[in-house]
Amino acid sequence: MKISALNFSYGKRAILRGIELNLKRGKFYGILGPNGCGKSTLLKNILQILKPASGIIEINGKKASEYSLKELAALIGFVPQKTALAAALNVNEILLAGRFCRLKSAFSGYDASDRDKVEQIAELLDVKKFLNRSAFELSGGEFGRVLLARALVSEPEILLLDEPTGALDMNYAIEAMRICENLTKTLNLTSVIVLHDLNLASLFCDEILMLKDGAVRYRGSASELFTPQIIKEIYGFEALIVEENGVKFILPKKEKM
Q: Residue 69, SS3?
């Protein structure tokens, strides 16, 4: 996926400014930055939910705007920040919905290959035991795995995740990140995750993109970018950087009153 000179505005308010990215398969990218810097808006532009004011988004050498929504849904798996169920669907029904973009026609219905793919992904993400259960009965961590499974049953090449760990306990958040990291390598995906937790990004992401005021300010590994100066510039707080086994962790300093 390649993004060139991407700009997006809500009315006169510029949100994304000249975004330039070249993202490769088999890599797990973390998008970091303060609230309102354009992280989620960038994902929505890639998904064509929002239309860029200018610039080009290319997927496999073709403009994203030239794909149909069904084609994009097959190429890109998306795990949203928030998902509310309007009906008491069971997990099998939720996962089958992820195969809709692969249907030969809207009238043909799901066939054996669709059901096999659901079983395969459910097994991979350890949600097979939930297939006949209502999603309302699942814990936050369990439902998070179901949403990830739904994103994968379409057999995407790109996986976009918008703060999937935001509402999870630390153990579930680590588990989710570990799963995403493994899937990126195993399935050779281009994975992009929006995160607020800097330490999770340091533990699991191959490369980090730091946004501020709608622009990519820094790009590199956590070991390169996690310095007191950069954290202060991007987030506005003083930080102590601790390194353990080659991994850098951020500890905010408590300001004196």
A: helix
